[in-house]
Amino acid sequence: MSSPILPFTEANSKRVASLFRQALRTAFDSTLKFDAYRAQTLKIRQQFEANKHISDPVELEKVIAKTEAKLTETKHPDPYITPCRPGGTKYQRNIELPKEDVVPGDW
């Protein structure tokens, strides 16, 4: 078992920031309307702000584990993918033509 990450360290800050971004993406996948998404982001920010004072490493690990479990539970089955990213609707739509002859032979 790995040792708990101490609070107020760079590693802890990156871990919490990653969870925050993941929570925002999950909220966006669930609510594509901006006003509903904005309400969700304010709620998420409020929840993260409420726990930013935690200095006990054991309690911090419990809160982080609870957050990770909630994120996996609420993960959207069909997340939004930007069209030009891998898996998007426009990804590799205009593929380059092959450099060699398409039909072999001397015409």
UniProtKB/TrEMBL annotation:
Signal peptide, first to last residue: none
Membrane topology: Peripheral membrane protein
Start and end residues of each Complex 1 LYR protein domain: 14-72
GO biological process terms on file: mitochondrial electron transport, NADH to ubiquinone
Pfam family for this entry, one: Complex1_LYR
Protein origin, superkingdom: Eukaryota
Matches recorded under InterPro entries: Complex1_LYR_dom (IPR008011), Complex1_LYR_NDUFB9_LYRM3 (IPR045292), NDUFB9 (IPR033034)
GO cellular component terms, A-Z: mitochondrial inner membrane
Keyword list, A-Z: Acetylation, Electron transport, Membrane, Mitochondrion, Mitochondrion inner membrane, Phosphoprotein, Respiratory chain, Transport
Cellular localization per UniProt: Mitochondrion inner membrane
Self-association and partners: Mammalian complex I is composed of 45 different subunits.
Family label: Belongs to the complex I LYR family.
Function: Accessory subunit of the mitochondrial membrane respiratory chain NADH dehydrogenase (Complex I), that is believed to be not involved in catalysis. Complex I functions in the transfer of electrons from NADH to the respiratory chain. The immediate electron acceptor for the enzyme is believed to be ubiquinone.
PANTHER family with a match to the protein in the record: NADH DEHYDROGENASE [UBIQUINONE] 1 BETA SUBCOMPLEX SUBUNIT 9, NADH-UBIQUINONE OXIDOREDUCTASE B22 SUBUNIT
Designated name of the protein: NADH dehydrogenase [ubiquinone] 1 beta subcomplex subunit 9
Top-level taxonomy: Eukaryota, Fungi, Dikarya, Ascomycota, Saccharomycotina
